[in-house]
TrEMBL record:
The gene is LOC616002. Residues 41-103, 104-165, 166-231, 232-291 form the Sushi domain. Residues 362-465 are annotated as: Disordered. The lineage of its organism: Eukaryota, Metazoa, Chordata, Craniata, Vertebrata. CDD domains: CCP. The keyword Magnesium does not apply. This is Sushi domain-containing protein.
């Protein structure tokens, strides 16, 4: 027998929840989680540049793909092809950007016959330009100008100076004297003139006191004041207990030199040589003769005469005298030796240092001598040029004189020629007149002869015969 089983019934089904709310939650989580790796990368602050600044609004955070723009500061200008922008890279760094602007500069202040020095090697704004002129020219304007920034433009603080040639007017005229090239009114830089005195009408000649040569060194400025032409007479010098060994004469004019010597038993105090100065006085001050003999060296009392100093003739102590020295004296001796070594080293150092100093002084002296030689050469060249100009002028004057003499001779010859022509003309006219008178007389004689012959037949005596 089989038992009958009742059929199994299916369990009741679970009610299904609506799918929409769970989908929304998933999408929301995905939207929150997926951007995390992207927005976690940020760029640091934008690069700071010297010539450029950020343009527009500055953000607090910059993310990959963000771009920033720059512009030039005031007083700067853009230089192509550099970039004016940067981009935030995915790795959190900015794309490469360099200085794209330069400072504006003033134009180069070129100065003819001069030179311009820029201490900063540039003419950018806030820079200076130092201007100087070549030799023989002077600066008209300010020697230092500054490049200023005004608004967006740059310009020099003052008008650019210029160099003008140095000229001097006619040097001062002096009484009883004259100077070379006195016919000229304008003299160029470094041009030299020489003064000289006129001959005197009196018994004493004029002396030129001061610099006889002047040089044009600055606009309308000569190297020194003009000299004076004056009669300089010094009184005959007298030295008590002394004699004049040279320079004796009847008159002592300007720059006359006299040498003195004291008599036996006297010595000279002062200079043995004096000269007649421009103020009619002897220079330097007249010496004096002092009775006695001039000491050759100062007399001093020997140190041995002072208490506490030994006599050089005293006996030198023997070695036995040093046996009683104690340790303190030995230490003092060692200390003295050390001090002596230090002193010697110091002296050697000073000697070496002084040697270098002397070498430096010798170089400076050699430089001064060289500069003096250059000045002397220039002076000789100027004098040579002046001499050449003078010779050329004398040649021109000589030629002009010869031309005038030739012209005078020509005129005299023409005058003599005209005189001879006049005499010849008068002679010819006189001969012509004499010839005409002779011809007139001849005509009168010829006319009288036939008339007499015609009257002869009419005479009654002749007819009768």
């Amino acid at each position: 027998m089989t038992a009958s089983c009742a059929p199994r019934q299916a369990p009741p089904a679970r009610p299904e929840s609506p799918p929409f709310p769970w989908c929304c939650v998933g999408m929301l989580l995905a939207a929150l989680v997926l951007p995390l790796p992207i927005f976690s990368v940020r760029c640091i602050d934008p690069p700071v540049l010297d010539s450029m600044k950020l343009k527009g609004v500055i953000k607090r955070h910059y993310y990959p793909g963000d771009r920033i723009d720059y512009e030039c500061y005031r007083g700067y200008f853009y230089v192509w092809p550099y970039l004016l922008s940067a981009t935030c890279e995915p790795n959190g760094s900015w794309s490469r950007i360099e200085e794209a602007c330069l400072r504006k500069s003033c134009p180069d202040p070129q100065v003819k016959h001069g030179k311009v020095v820029a201490p900063n090697d540039t003419f950018e704004w806030e820079s200076e330009a130092h201007i100087s002129c070549d030799e023989g020219y002077f600066l008209r304007g300010k020697p230092i100008i500054i490049c200023n920034l005004i608004g967006e433009n740059v310009s020099w603080s003052d008008t650019i100076p210029h160099c003008e040639k140095i000229y001097c007017g006619q040097p001062p005229k002096i009484k009883h004297g004259k100077h070379t090239n006195s016919y000229r009114n304008i003299f160029e830089y470094n041009e030299l003139i020489t003064y000289s005195c006129d001959p005197s009408n009196g018994p004493d000649e004029y002396s030129l006191v001061g610099q006889n040569k002047l040089i044009c060194i600055e606009p309308n400025k000569w190297s020194s004041d003009p000299p004076l032409c004056k009669v300089v007479k010094c009184q005959r010098p007298f030295l008590e207990h002394g004699i004049m060994v040279s320079g004796s004469r009847d008159k002592f004019s300007y720059q006359s030199v006299v040498v003195f010597e004291c008599l036996q038993g006297f010595y000279l105090n002062g200079s043995n040589l004096v000269f007649c100065g421009g103020n009619d006085t002897w220079e330097p001050e007249m010496p004096t003769c002092i009775k006695g003999y001039k000491p050759t060296h100062p007399t001093k009392t020997p140190l041995s005469k002072y208490p506490g100093y030994p006599n050089p003739s005293d006996e030198i102590p023997s070695l036995e005298d040093f046996e009683d020295l104690d340790a303190g004296i030995i230490a003092l001796a060692i200390l003295t030796a050390i001090v002596a070594v230090v002193v010697v080293c110091t002296c050697l150092y000073r000697c070496l240092f002084s040697g270098k100093k002397e070498e430096k002084d010798m170089k400076e002296k050699a430089k001064e001598v060289k500069e003096k030689e250059v000045r002397d050469v220039k002076e000789e060249e100027r004098e040579k040029e002046e001499k050449q100009r003078k010779e050329e002028k004398e040649k021109e004057e000589k030629k002009e004189k010869e031309r005038k003499e030739k012209e005078k001779e020509r005129k005299e010859k023409e005058k003599e020629k005209k005189q001879k022509e006049k005499e010849m003309k008068e002679k010819k006219e006189k001969e012509k007149k004499q010839k005409e008178e002779k011809e007139m007389k001849g005509k009168k004689g010829v006319g009288a002869g036939p008339t007499t012959q015609q009257k002869k037949p009419t005479s009654p005596v002749v007819q009768k015969r």
